Amino acid sequence: xxxxxxxxxxxxxxxxxxxxxxxxxxxxxxxxxxxxxxxxxxxxxxxxxxxxxxxxxxxxxxxxxxxxxxxxxxxxxxxxxxxxxxxxxxxxxxxxxxxxxxxxxxxxxxxxxxxxxxxxxxxxxxxxxxxxxxxxxxxxxxxxxxxxxxxxxxxxxxxxxxxxxxxxxxxxxxxxxxxxxxxxxxxxxxxxxxxxxxxxxxxxxxxxxxxxxxxxxxxxxxxxxxxxxxxxxxxxxxxxxxxxxxxxxxxxxxxxxxxxxxxxxxx
Length: 267
Fold this sequence. Notes:
Elements: E1 10-12, E2 15-21, H1 26-29, E3 39-45, H2 48-62, E4 78-81, E5 92-94, H3 102-105, E6 107-110, E7 115-119, H4 121-127, H5 133-136, E8 145-149, E9 153-158, E10 168-169, E11 172-178, E12 193-197, E13 203-208, E14 218-224, E15 232-236, E16 254-261, E17 264-265
Antiparallel strand pairs: 1-2, 2-3, 3-14, 4-16, 5-7, 6-9, 7-8, 9-15, 10-17, 11-14, 11-16, 12-13, 12-15
């Protein structure tokens, strides 16, 4: 396996854009045993360009090419989901479990809520009956964003694309978020968190997502391991399920692109 080398800290104009390798933090990882250390990619800022460098470095660390809907198992490359359906502008509700990318890209999505929605800004405002949602979010890849409905929790399980229900694991997984206002769990209204689990459902790594305290900001967080260890990911997007106003009491967050290493069948 190739080893991922540390890349320098990237910072510009006060916008956080960091790439570093860190150990599992005791407070975040809830006391899990020491294990392989992932390379962590994180960035936040007010524009697409403020996080693009870190996202592109993450793509390179996952590997080339983008395998899109090519059936697996494949030995290299990555998968991406941008929710846009070729630039679709319609609002597309989906039930839970959401199987739309299970066969093509090896990802199954579930939530304790009623389902998911892929929508442009106007569709989010309509879906959640909150006109402020048309202005407080920003897509990373136009035009649609993604969020659970009735919950702020999204679970992602990995499978070999095109191989039925063959469970898999990946080397890395990252997400672009829109409007993470609060930086970490020290604020009672902050709760944007990613937790990575192994095949035995052991917590491997956990971290809050970096914030940019302004409306329509973008944040990115992802990790890469030297081998496929991640079998499941839990994403906590914001303090509460979408619907309420995003204010000083609670941080409402939605998601855009998901990127992950080529799913490899569990041994």
